[in-house]
Structure prediction request, 82 residues.
Amino acid sequence: MGDLQLWLIGVMGAVISYFLKGTMDELKQVKTMAEDNKTRIVLLENNHTHLTDKFDQLFDAVKDLTKEIKMLNYSLSKKKDI
Prediction:
């Protein structure tokens, strides 16, 4: 009876090891994906910050151009009155 129990324990250990190895391999894949996603998120955050800065600069430039156009229109209207 002792040999049968030892054999059953060995088979159970082998089955558990098989599924544990599969689980550990999947865990490694998830870890790798998480690291890749973290890198992508950082890149997207940097791009978002960069784009936000560029849009702010563009908005300021449009405001300045609007002021210039208003000043030029005012100057032209004064010249027409002369």
